[in-house]
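Slides due. Your pick:
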Amino acid sequence: MKTESEIKEMVKQKYSEIALQDKTTNQSSCCGAGSCSTEVYNIMSDDYTEMNGYNPDADLGLGCGLPTQFAAIKKGDVVIDLGSGAGNDCFIARAETGESGKVIGIDFTDAMINKARENAEKLNFNNVEFRQGDIEHMPVSANTADVIVSNCVLNLVPNKNNVFAEIYRVLKPGGHFSISDVVLQGNLPDQLRNTAEMYAGCVSGAVQKDTYMELIKINGFSNIKIQKEKAIIIPDDILANYLSAAELEAFKSGETGIFSISVYAEKPKEPAACTPGGGCC
């Protein structure tokens, strides 16, 4: 079994490659993991193109939802995008927060940061910045953000509890997040979970939906709700690379499912009497 550092390095290498691919290649692949299907497999069927602030140069065709659509961003807000890629969600958030606000994108890979910065410079945006960093240890001070968004990124992180703890730290009291991510119902076959290509392809790093929602709760968030949910269908020719004919039939006929969810939650305005990690909960 790979260690957390090995998984992170694998993801970093994969997404460095993805940063150099075009949108068409990414859309006909496993979330950018390579041309692995003869069918067009775009895990994100949601369409960004009609949203204010959309910039095609920043859209790599990755993601699994439209978190900025649900994020209730207001003029003047400070917004942080976790796993900001080429800057797509950052530029849409900037259209909402306006010139009086600020948008910070955080990404693990230098290639993505460089691409996002080039896009921001082309747009002449002075209030959008991109920082290289690990979202388990964000390069951001506590109580900074009004809103945090993320699109199909937390599933790639080995220790998701650390990320939610960091989100809580970085949000201002009364701030909130809207995150789109991939979760599971039932047990994904080991052949899929243990394959690097599928891991960078948004599926094998996912956890059970109930576990995901519980991580949000135990880290102190309130008013937790699912804003959108949809099933993700993996084409048979992808599944056939990892499963035998009998396993494929059992997988498709069982109750196991892969879903994209967009989740909203708030950091309470007043600290709880017993705070997460304080030893009294």
Summary: The domain at 4-266 is CATH 3.40.50.150 (Rossmann fold). The beta strands are 78-82, 102-107, 128-132, 145-151, 171-185, 207-208, 222-231, 257-266. Residues 12 and 109 are 6 Å apart (CA to CA). The chain has one domain: 4-266.
